[in-house]
Amino acid sequence: MKKTLLIALVLLLTSGMAIAQQNGGQGPGQGGPNSAQDGTDNPGNFRDRNSVSKVERLTERLGLDDEQVAAITVILEDAEMVRNEERERSRTIAMENREITHAAIMSVLTSEQQALMEEQMQEREQMRQTLKDMGMDRGYGRGRGTRDCDG
């Protein structure tokens, strides 16, 4: 019974997080992408993924006892594990889809077009590597990158 309840809770938390991510991490009454849920500024890291600080906030706000802290810590760690597994599965599926799509496109092209496409793909990869070497491959867009704009 406890295990079933725990699994249901983890699934509920995971689906709620997926919905929140689809909404840009903003729910009703929340601030913009650089605002924490408690209304304080949290620039550069609008989603706190640290389970310890979540437990600390819950403990402070709800007055959790040691047993509750231990239980919630396990729940959050399990939820994080499920999220990571789902993320990895999604990456694998996306990569397989890209490979299938690429092969299908290549089958339609002439040999000259295939060579041109491969050349363009190599140029794009070289550009990505150049940006990575320059440290410009980070961030999520819309000002939420991991680096300071002044540096």
Topology:
Layout: H1 2-22, H2 51-62, H3 66-108, H4 111-133
Helix pairs in contact: 1-3, 2-3
Can you describe this structure?
The chain is built from 4 helices and no strands. By secondary structure, the protein is an all-alpha fold. The protein has a domain at 2-13 and 35-109. The radius of gyration is 22 Å and the shape is elongated.
Largest beta-sheet details: none
Shape descriptor: elongated
Average pLDDT number = 76
Assign the structural class, choosing from mainly alpha, mainly beta, alpha/beta, alpha+beta, or little secondary structure. Answer: mainly alpha
Give the H and E element order.
HHHH
Number of strands: 0
End-to-end Cα distance:
54 Å
Q: Which spans have pLDDT < 50 for at least 5 consecutive residues?
A: 25-48
Query: Based on the structure, what is the oligomeric state of the protein chains?
Result: single chain
Concise account of the structure shown:
The chain has 151 residues and is an all-alpha fold. It has 4 helices and no strands.
Q: What labels describe this entry?
A:
mainly alpha; 66% helix; single chain; 151 residues
